[in-house]
Model the fold of this input.
Amino acid sequence: MPDFTHISPESELSALAPITLEEMDSVKLMNRVDSKYLTDEATLLPLLRDAGAAGYRALTTNGTKTAQYDTMYYDTPGLQMFLDHHNRRLTRQKVRTRIYVGSELAFLEIKRKNNHGRTKKKRMQIPVGEFKTFTSDREASAYLESKSGYSAGELSPSLETIFRRITLVNPAMTERLTIDTCLCFKNTRNGGEASLRNGVIIELKQDGHAPSQMKDILLSHRIKPIRVSKYCIGVTLTDRNVKSNRFKLKIRKIEKQINNRLI
Done:
């Protein structure tokens, strides 16, 4: 994966009170409204300090507040799920497997977005060894077809995404904030690689449109909302032949916000 020197947020994270996975059970938000934001690593540091002052807690597992994620997106040979997003289809879905590296757990996850902007996620645990080959698992294949409408034979690995994630929870336990840094992409079909360099993708996850103190904190740091998909950006950055005019415009906007060239 591409190499880049990153700014560590460990000092700021150490000041945030911890929260365990068990405590977070009530904030799973599997049926939710997502708001995404984009910033850079330098701006993330004061945001974390303000979050701590406002009482937000950081998910802590195995003594660390930063988790490593490895995600494999699956798609049809013609990249139908990618193109559904590119062509602005309101109802769309993504199929992926994900390894939570620190806990050595792997899941098959199916995300579906409806025409009201709500995202529903369904998942089942799979063996870690099936991260890239879940379609050979009869139970996982049946689950895929029942939840997505795709059969295992229609899909194959498309893009691997590796990143580090910080997860914050507000004092009222009504929202989660995921902060993804060190994003790297590898196209499993052509071998292309890319990264988001110092870019940081933030996702505010709520069950509805309740008032959020985090939105005020983001606004105070001039962190603006953006419609962005890690899968679609990763494919666009690693495949010059794919239809991606709309996403290339998005990449130019990202480059401007993080002051870094990606292509």
Observations:
- Residues 10-258 form a domain with the Hypothetical Protein Pfu-838710-001 fold (CATH 2.40.320.10).
- DSSP finds seven helices and eleven strands in the chain.
